[in-house]
Design a protein that fits this description.
The protein has 477 residues and is an alpha+beta fold. The chain is built from 16 helices and 18 strands. The chain has helices at residues 3-7, 15-28, 30-41, 53-68, 144-161, 183-189, 191-194, 238-241, 248-257, 280-288, 293-298, 313-318, 359-371, 398-411, 425-434, 459-476; strands at residues 73-77, 84-89, 96-102, 122-125, 133-136, 167-173, 199-202, 214-219, 221-230, 236-237, 322-330, 340-341, 344-353, 379-388, 391-392, 416-420, 438-441, 456-458. Strands 1, 2, 3, 6, 7, 8, 15, 16 and 17 form a nine-stranded mixed sheet that branches. Helix 2 (15-28) runs antiparallel to helix 16 (459-476), helix 3 (30-41) runs antiparallel to helix 5 (144-161) and helix 6 (183-189) packs parallel to helix 15 (425-434). It is globular.
Length: 477
């Protein structure tokens, strides 16, 4: 019988007997956890810039070494881009959990707006002057700090009990910030092993607020389209041809203006096919959240919701589909003035999708919508820019409620099931390729300035995040 077997917590032990010493160990090793995170943050693993390829490999190797030090069999797997770290520790009974994160970070430009070196992590006082402090560095919140909350929970659990409470696989990629091009192929290649997991865990999301933990249960998918309307065979003198020649900018503007009705509903035929209504229990929980639509919009200089007028702002941003024009151009846009009727007009659009909406059906219906509104002398070309469906998690599943209870206990505030207006492609890929549902639990805050100068991760988020994961692992086991 091994020491690990002797120390593995009994299934008959009380939850407090099992988890209490683990939480104590996390509290006692806060300085060590902070030092390890700082070492990780000092590596400038900017994935989108080829000049940092060596640093990305260094970050992967650092993580392999750290995970190996706490009993994982860890390897940095080469890809056509940056390495993917895969680590396993399967010597415990119980369920099998697959944790996902990423070690790559965004570029730091503009550097002059940083208050300190982005790769020299600092503990700083928060702007509100309170007692809370934050870690300032690129990657502190997105996603190195979040990854290390999970790693520290595993470290403490193993230190106390000699083994983890369940089987764990950790997968950390290095291209999330630059498109994740090689991850789907990696999942396909390792699918036989990875789909043995019971559920995936992702720590790349946030809390509802600084005191309220959250589980993100739905993500919107996305469809991208570029439209080019062609009119005359060259730019024309607006005095000679104005009034007689079709103006592609005017044509395209009229078509885009017809996308929504006066109440904000998208007018593409079939657009709402597969869009679900939220269950009454979910709506009641959302309604109970302390959310001020006026303040939400006021922060960006607006005052009134613009979209579907019969929907709340949380519905609009979490559970409803959208059609947005992201850019439009044509003709002369330089300094001064040039009186032309342009030969072409361009627009880029994104559609955020929910529920069972079919991205390809919407793409074709949108293209038909445009073609039907073209005048006889104009033609149109389309360029696709990716497509992924929305994702909805089965919150009635047992592991969702166990996780919610564990978070509630740690934060002494009922954890919220929330939506997310953005997209996290890996969640859909793990569902499509591996057949796994995902628990999206993160401890970032809305003001963490991810992708911006002076990115930060609240020290409380880091420390209580690790405690939260320890409770979650114990609860799921």
């Amino acid at each position: 019988m091994t020491d690990a077997t002797l120390n593995t917590p009994s299934a008959h032990a009380s939850a407090d007997d099992r988890i209490g010493p683990v939480l104590d160990a996390l509290d006692a090793d806060r300085d060590g956890a902070r030092a390890r995170l700082f070492d990780f943050l000092r590596i400038p693993s900017i994935s989108t810039d080829p000049a940092y390829a060596v640093q990305c490999a260094k970050a992967a190797d650092w993580l392999v070494g750290d995970l190996a030090g706490i009993g994982f069999e860890a390897t940095a797997h080469a890809t056509g881009g940056h390495p993917i770290v895969l680590a396993t520790q399967h010597d415990a009974p119980g369920p099998h959990l697959l944790f996902y994160g990423h070690y790559d970070v965004q570029p730091v430009d503009p550097l002059e707006l940083w208050e300190s070196d982005p790769f020299d992590p600092q503990i700083v006082d928060l702007a509100d002057g309170g007692a809370d402090k934050a870690i300032r560095a690129r990657g502190a919140s997105d996603d190195k700090g979040q990854v290390m909350t999970f790693v520290e929970a595993c470290r403490a659990y193993r230190a106390v009990h000699g083994a983890l409470p369940c089987k764990i696989t950790i997968l950390v990629e290095g291209e999330e910030e630059s498109g994740g091009k090689h991850l789907p192929g990696f999942l396909e290649a390792h699918a036989d092993d990875l789909r043995q997991a019971d559920v995936a865990l992702v720590c790349d999301t946030g809390m509802w607020d600084a005191d309220t933990p959250a589980i993100t249960t739905m993500l919107r998918g996305m469809l991208g389209e570029e439209v080019v309307v062609q009119g005359p065979d060259r730019d024309l003198h607006s005095g000679f041809y104005g009034g007689a020649a079709a103006n592609p900018i005017t044509v395209l503007s009229q078509i885009l203006g017809a996308l929504h009705d006066a109440d904000g509903r998208v007018q593409i035929p079939g657009f709402y096919d597969g869009v679900p209504e939220m269950p009454a229990t979910v709506m009641a929980q959302w309604d109970a959240l302390p959310f001020d639509p006026g303040a939400f919009l006021g922060e960006i200089g607006l005052s009134r919701p613009w979209g579907e007028q019969d929907r709340s702002v949380l519905e609009q941003t979490w559970s409803r589909p959208t059609a947005e024009v992201n850019g439009i151009w044509g003709g002369y846009t330089g300094a001064g003035f040039k009186t032309v009727i342009p030969s072409t007009a361009h627009a880029k659009l994104s559609f955020r999708l929910v529920g069972q909406q079919d991205p390809e059906a919407i793409r074709q219906n949108f293209r038909t919508f445009v073609r039907e509104r073209l005048p006889a002398d104009c033609t149109v070309a389309f360029h696709a820019h990716g497509a992924s469906p929305g994702t909805v998690m089965p919150i009635e599943a047992d592991h969702f409620e166990k996780t919610r209870a564990a978070l509630t206990r740690e934060w002494d505030r009922e954890a919220a099931f929330i939506g997310c207006g953005g997209s996290i492609p890996v969640v859909g890929e793990m569902q499509r390729i591996l057949g796994l549902d995902t628990l999206l639990v993160g401890f970032g805050l809305a003001d963490d300035r991810i992708h911006s100068p002076n990115e930060k991760y609240q020290l409380r988020s880091f420390e209580k995040g690790a405690r939260s994961w320890a409770r979650i692992l114990d609860a799921l086991a």
